[in-house]
Hints:
The protein is mainly alpha-helical. It has helices at residues 23-47, 58-91, 106-121, 136-161, 168-180, 183-214, 222-225, and strands at 8-11, 15-19, 227-230. A three-stranded antiparallel β-sheet has the order 1-2-3. The longest helix is centred in the N-terminal third of the chain and has 34 residues, at 58-91.
Amino acid sequence: xxxxxxxxxxxxxxxxxxxxxxxxxxxxxxxxxxxxxxxxxxxxxxxxxxxxxxxxxxxxxxxxxxxxxxxxxxxxxxxxxxxxxxxxxxxxxxxxxxxxxxxxxxxxxxxxxxxxxxxxxxxxxxxxxxxxxxxxxxxxxxxxxxxxxxxxxxxxxxxxxxxxxxxxxxxxxxxxxxxxxxxxxxxxxxxxxxxxxxxxxxxxxxxxxxxxxxxxxxxxxxxxxxxxxxxxxxxxxxxxxxxxx
Length: 245
C-alpha cells in the first residue's frame, strides 16, 4: 500500500479519520520518550548538573551507582527499541507515513526548502497540511536526531566498556575511544551531542502542540490512538511547492 493509499474510515458528515501510526509505531514512540527521560535525568545527575550532597557519604556512593545503572539500562532499552523501529520500518512499508521520503531525490530537498519558507512566513496556518505523516523537513529532522542518538549510544557504551576491560562492550565499542583519540574526547563528544538532541525534543513537543492548536486537528492525539482527522475535501499533495505559493 503506497503513501497515497493510507487506510481511512469516514465519520458522520464532517470529515474522515485516517490511520497514520500503527500500534508498533505508537508503542515504540512512547518507549523512546520514557527511556530518553530517564537518560536525561540520570545523565545530568552523573555529570553533576543535578544538586548532590557536598559530602560523599556511603549512602551517596550507592545512589550514584544506582544512577549509573539506571542510565545504562535506559540506554540499552533505547538502543533495542531503536533497532526494532528500524526493523519495523523495513518490513511494514505500508505504514511508512512516518518517513515517506527518499532523501537522495531532488524533490526531497525542494520540499525541505519550501517547508522552511512555509514555517518562516507562517503561511502554514492558512491551509491544511499536505501530507498525513511527516513532511520532508520533519523527516530530515528525525533522521538527524537518529544519527545524533546513534552517536550518543556509541560513545556511551564505549565509556561503559572501560569498567570491564576485555568484556563484550569492550569488544564491540572499544574502537570508539581509539577512533576519538582518548576517553576524555569521547566523554566530551557524548555531552556535546546531548544538547542538540535536547533542543530537538523541546522543539518537537512545542511545535506539535502549536500546530494542533492552530488547526491541524488530531496531531497530538494521533500518537496515542493512531488516527488523524481531516475534512472530506482534503487530499494529499505529492509536490506541494508547485501548488502553494
